[in-house]
């Protein structure tokens, strides 16, 4: 499991929905949510190659996004993850 913190113009551009769609297509479980500071946070679990693919995608995002920084925490504490990939409310 990894945790991603994505900064830049990532809210109001469809980032969460596109991230969730890509994660589901890759067979990942976890969640994504907006944060009040304007960033997007995600917890992702699955096969190593799929995690690498979503991490690479997160650095670009959907066309309207302007990602400035992605912080990856590979040693994060386990987050509650359901079987499917979900979009959580803003934290």
Description of the structure:
By secondary structure, the protein is of the alpha+beta class. The chain has one domain: Alpha-Beta Plaits. 24% of the residues lie in helices and 34% in strands. The protein has a 5-stranded mixed beta sheet, covered by helices on one side. The longest helix has 11 residues. The two termini are 20 Å apart. The model has no long low-confidence stretch (mean pLDDT 93).
Give the helix/strand layout.
Layout (H helix, E strand, L loop, with lengths): L1 E8 L5 H11 L3 E6 L5 E6 L2 H11 L7 E8 L11 E3 L4
Parallel strand pairs: 2-5
Antiparallel strand pairs: 1-3, 1-4, 2-3
Question: What is the residue-averaged pLDDT?
Answer: 93
Terminal CA distance reads 20 Å
Oligomer designation: single chain
Which strand order do you get reading across the main beta sheet?
4-1-3-2-5
In short:
This protein is an alpha+beta fold and 91 residues long. It has helices at residues 15-25, 48-58; strands spanning 2-9, 29-34, 40-45, 66-73, 85-87.
Any key phrases for this structure?
91 residues; alpha+beta; five-stranded mixed β-sheet; 2 helices; 24% helix; globular
